[in-house]
Amino acid sequence: MAVRIGLISDTHGLLRPEVERCLAGVSHIIHAGDIGAPGIVEDLRRIAPVTAIKGNVDTGKWAKCYSDTETVRLAGACFYVLHDLKELKANPAQRGIDVVISGHSHRVKVETVGGILFLNPGSAGPRRFRLPITLATLDLDESGVLRPTIHELDR
Questions:
Q1: 3-state DSSP call for residue 144?
Q2: Is pLDDT at 128 greater than 70 in this prediction?
Q3: Residue 52 and residue 66 in contact, taking contact as beta carbons nearer than 8 Å
Q4: Exposed/middle/buried for 64, CB within 10 Å: 0-12, 13-18, 19+?
């Protein structure tokens, strides 16, 4: 059975109504930091279980419960989550990681390097730099094939 995972980043305290519609039916949500407000993750948990990390704007007391990185296994795939890809110190291949999820740049990135999928879902929060407002879903099929889809929320 295929599994769909929701990927979101850089909400900066804003959870748009389109997010809930776009992530309806996902089995898990990964938030790659810059959450921006304590209620964001709670709201996402109403859709599906959430793995979230803190980003550079998550400095309040509420953010102390979030780590800088997380490793999570979902549907047989290993995900490594960090906010700024430039801070990746671990060698994903040596650690058995299949997917590296990051945020920070507000720019969508979907790239496979050495068999590892690097995915930045862009920013789902307030618009910056005239970039599109985006998030992603990732479908994992029974054979382990990863199929990412970028969703523009402001069309």
A1: coil
A2: yes
A3: yes
A4: exposed
Q: In what order do the strands lie in the sheet with 99-101?
A: 69-74, 77-82, 99-101, 116-120, 109-113
Phi-psi region of 32 (alpha: psi -120 to 50; beta: other; left: phi over 0): alpha
Rounded distance between C-alpha atoms, residue 24 and residue 54, angstroms? 23
β-partners of residue 63 are none
Contact 73, 22 (CB under 8 A): no
Residue 125, pLDDT > 70, answer: yes
Q: What is the DSSP string of 66-108?
A: S-SEEEEEETTEEEEEES-GGG--S-TTTTT-SEEE--SS---
Residue 155 pLDDT greater than 80, yes or no: no
Q: Output the pLDDT for position 129.
A: 80
Provide, rounded to the nearest whole percent, the portion of the chain with pLDDT above 70: 99
CB 50 within 8 Å of CB 41: yes
Average pLDDT, integer, range 78-96:
94
**Domains annotated on the chain, with CATH:** 3-152 (3.60.21.10)
